[in-house]
Amino acid sequence: MAKVYIILSFLSLFTVITSCKKTDWDKEVSLPLKINADTEEMISKGNFEIEIENIEINITQIRISGERLQGDDVDKVFSTPLTVSLSNLGNTNYAINLPIGTYEDLGITVFFESSLGSSCETQVSSNAGQPFQSTMLIPLNLSVTENSISNKYGENVVLIDENAQNLQFNFDFKHSFESVDLGIWEALMNANIGQAQIDLTSVLGEDFKEEFNEAFVAGITFKIIN
Length: 226
Fold this sequence. Notes:
23% helix; disordered N terminus; 226 residues; 4 helices
């Protein structure tokens, strides 16, 4: 009987020791930066078809801050001079290190390079009525954008563990075009019939750029992929 008590006591002690093992909340995981953009899809607006031929988005810094349920809060700035183009969509050469844990209100701020012009180059065409085909170079007036990071656990609760795969940026060009007033868009297109390049310096062009850029910034989203 004494041997049984000794074995049971040893098992109880082992259970206590293993259950008290603490997670190292200072441990960080490396999250590769991934860029997604809906550039392969033909976009329709009114009687016109829009094909994105090139993009250039210049990012200088990324700041991530948030409260963790375990461990200290996070406020980190990463210097990431990165130019996003059609040639480097998908995985980039950059990674961001963040401590593991459950985050509340995890936010991200992206700083864009204002001295280097970001842009979206498109081909616009139409077979309705008078045939129309023209290029349109849209300046992306970006400075700073703030948003929250979300994942499958909910908009304001993000779990980062050793299985986290990447930090994903999503640029939504379709949303940007759809958000532009249809009257402004059709008037701009009709004013440029027969032109090799659509003039965005006119009043109509300025109105288009303002609405497009506002929607573009609002449509940037971020996700932690687990």
